[in-house]
Structure formats: structure tokens, C-alpha cells
Specification:
The chain is built from ten helices and 14 strands. The protein is of the alpha/beta class.
Amino acid sequence: MTKIKIALVSANPALGNKEANIEIMKRHVFESGADIIAFPETFLTGYGGRRVFCANAEDENGPSIQLLKEWAREKRCCIIFGAPLKHPDPKKRKAGILVNAGVMVQPSGEVNVQYKNHLPNFGPFSERRFFEPFDGTTVFDTPLGKVGIIICYDLFFPEVAKSLALKGADMLFNITCSPMLSKNFFEAVLPARAIENTCFVGFANIVGQQNKLEFWGGPQLYGPAGDLKIRGDYMTECRVEYAIDLKELQERRKLRPTLSDSRPFLFADISGFLKKRERVRRKKDKIRATKIKKSDSKPTVCDQVRESTHLCPQTSEFADSTQSQALRTRTAREQQLAYHAKTSGANEGQKGEES
């Protein structure tokens, strides 16, 4: 098969209501008749916080996935969606640690899972409180072609898409929860990933308000030359459908052989640098954490966060980073108080001279 019908969905999931969200998915699956249908990141639960994710997380053989397997088998399609899952490592799963996952169920009943590699922890995002980052990418074989799943923020790291393409991916699906503040970034990067890797790139985003954030929807599909094939409306629930032809993929890769021209030594060079930087960062965070414990016997911000997140334990990386943040916050507060004291003293002295 060279022609493949792709469906990309933007919808507003009910926060913490898996049953309602599964019904939304069922409607689109049975209405579209697509070969591959993709839903956004964490669509099973909505983009909530710690309590929503912890209360609704399943494992890879959970009841929701079992139900979707039945629909995939009945409609002879692949269904891609995002969900918080229990950690695949038994020890970490027992400790309550979660992962942000992209799941694909195939008509055969096979379940494929890609975990999110990069967790945003800036601005309105604090995913390290809820999830543990994963290392690695996997390409999934389907009767239609090879599929790679990129979860939201991972799109902004070109090595993620490149590794999937070098492993043979024909189609990349970016499932995301992108608020309005990120819209221009995503629409700039999506065609770039298609061009760099001569792949079809699909984008599925939630729409509406979730957890005090406004999401813009806009499902879209790009061809291997970075050309926009189809785009749905912004700020509106919708589904777009487009039939791609894998022959176009083969033709484009002959004209622009970016994959075969990729040079391995560059990846090794980058990997060595990042590993060294990570070791230095963790060492600094541990030193800062030790200073906090020695200088203040009272509960730190990290202690308070740990207490409030006992239902969903965070990783040591988050604990270290939170302690670092606590130190920065306290230092900034002390500097601010010192500045005000100095300023008020100077003002009083000036008033005395004037009198």
C-alpha cells in the first residue's frame, strides 16, 4: 500500500474523565475511516496536574488501551494518542513514578509506546513534578509503513526526529499540548523537521482551556518537502484528513538525500558534550542542596513540595532542581530585604540632614 489516509484530531478532552475522552476518540475513529488517526498528548486524561495524572494513570495493558485495541481491530486502523502511564520499570512503578507516553494500538492488537524524552520545566510548565524523562526513540513497524511518535516539546530537539528518521520512519506524528504562547514556534519547526528528514509530519494538538492554559488546536500535515498538505481551524475542535502517497517520500529522498548524507561523528561529538554538561549540572545541584540543609533546619520549599506530591513521587533530578530553586529564591529574598533596609536607612539619613 502506498496511499495512506491520515486523520489528525484537535479536541478538548474532559479533565480527569477518561470515559468521556474515550467516547470522543471512539466517535472520531468510527467516523473517519482513516488508516492512521492521531490524538493529542495526554488526551486520555486531559492536560491536568499531579492529582489528575496520578489518579488516572494506567499501565500499557490497562483497560483504556484494551478498549482501543478492540476498535483498532474492528476498524483496521492504527490509533495514536497520549496518556500518562505508570513507569515501565517495576521498582519505579511501585514507587508511583509516571511517564508521559505516546501510545499506538495496531489492528493486530500490538501496542507500541514511545516515552517523552524532554520535559518542559519553565514558564507555565512543570512536567518534572509529574513525570520522569526517558532516553531513546523507537520506530514502530505497521502494515502501512514505519511510524515514529514525537511528544510535544521533543519536537524542538532535532536529534529526536533525526534518530527516528535514520531508524527508518516514514511518518512522524507530533502529539502535543501546545498553548497559544507556543503556536508560532511549532508552526516554524514542523515544516523544518519534515524537510530535514524527508518525512511526512503530522501534528495533533488539544484545543480550548485546560488547567488555566488556552490551547490553539490547528491540526496539520506536512509533506517531505516541508509543504503544507492540510491544516485545520485554530481554536476550534476539528479533524482533518489527507491521503498521503509513500511514493512521494521515495522521490523526495532521491532529490534531497539528507538521511544518507548524515555523518555519525557529529552525533558522537554532541553526545559527549551533553553527558559532560549533565554531570557538572548534577554535581552543582547536589552542592546547593547540601548548603540548604546545613543553613536552615526548617522545611525547605523542596520538602514542602515533596510532602504535597507524596502520591506521585518525583525523580531525584526534580528534587535536586527544586532544592536549587529554593536556594535561589531564599538568596534573592535576602538580597531584596537587605536592599530595602539599606534604602530606608539612606532615606532616613537624608531626611535628618534636610531637617
